[in-house]
Design goal:
This protein is an alpha/beta fold. It has 10 helices and 15 strands. The strands form 3 sheets. Strands 3, 4, 5, 6, 7, 14 and 15 form a 7-stranded mixed sheet that branches. The chain binds NADP nicotinamide-adenine-dinucleotide phosphate.
Amino acid sequence: MLNSAPGDSLVNHRLLLAARPSAIPGPEHFTADSLPARVPGAGDVLLESLYLSIDPAMRSWMRDGTGYQQGIPIGEVMRGGGIARVLQSRADGFAAGDLVQARLGWQTHPTIAARYLQKLDLGLGTAEDWIGPLGLSAVTAYFGLRDIGGMRPNDRVLVSAAAGGVGQIAVQIARIEGCRVAGIAGGPQKCAFVRDELRAHAAIDYKAEPNLSAAIGRACPDGVDLYFDNVGGATLDAALEHLRQGARVVLCGRISQTHAEEAYGVRNLGRLAAARGRMQGFLVFNYHDRYDEARTWLAARRRDGSLQQRLHVLDGLDQAPRGLGMLFRGENTGKLVVRLATLAPTHS
Ligand SMILES: NC(=O)c1ccc[n+]([C@@H]2O[C@H](COP(=O)([O-])OP(=O)(O)OC[C@H]3O[C@@H](n4cnc5c(N)ncnc54)[C@H](OP(=O)(O)O)[C@@H]3O)[C@@H](O)[C@H]2O)c1
């Protein structure tokens, strides 16, 4: 495990993009190096990374060219967001010991201009809450259901990848808001988590179902008002068969298509027309100005005990490449993060 112990002269351990994957990413696509941590200049802050968020979108950033964001150049630090502690500050408003979130990159001790940092409001939650139920995955679920999905009490809601980072929060928000919720997840353990801990009304193990559409029909006997789709492909097609009148389909992600040799051609769009439904994609970044609204709501549900979050924690920067691959093999349950350090006393 790469890390620095108290008393080390500060070394920044980094993981750089070394090769562009053609399939599921792994350690072979990264190289490690270690440099002295950069001394902060005016307006900069030297950080100690605590948690990195591991997200499916990172796979698209490893491509050449542009998607919704520019691809990462070969030889550059892998892009990624996380939570860090300030070790040294040369910026107004930040002091040693502050906790911040930022696009840290896959590195242990980044030095970053303060304008790119957001100080954590610890009144809302702990560092673990900020990478978990107050983090971007949770915020994505909040805006996806409400603003894109137009969620209403008593809606019949279906969520795919329901045991994952976004999905587990989507299931719970919908339940808290008085909806009837069914979750789709891979394997009996994930389904038990969705049913017993997230308290969905039904869970569908798509890996065990020869006919997913029939299984959705059993779990959602009155149909689906709101489908929150994290998966795309054949799962989306199966869900479309069960839309009720006026249904909304939220295109949050399409992880099943990331490594598909040929893009899946959705067949059931006619069902959307027949239901007078609508389907809309979104990117959470467009809600940047309203993140506080989501976090205030989520923190309140956290405090009253109605919202839980399972973090799937890997320890050490060197685990990040393996972690990224785990998302595409369904090996994570809950929000996947890499822990680089714990909140021990500051060593500056
Ligand atoms: N729109 C936005 O702004 C936004 C923001 C964040 C995330 N997202 C999207 O939200 C989705 C979930 O992201 P997350 O970070 O919460 O990841 P996650 O759900 O924690 O992990 C990914 C999960 O996807 C499922 N999966 C992987 N490959 C699959 C396949 N071929 N077919 C079906 N399911 C598959 C696996 O669950 P099972 O074992 O249950 O299959 C896996 O655990 C992703 O599509 C992501 O791109 C969108």
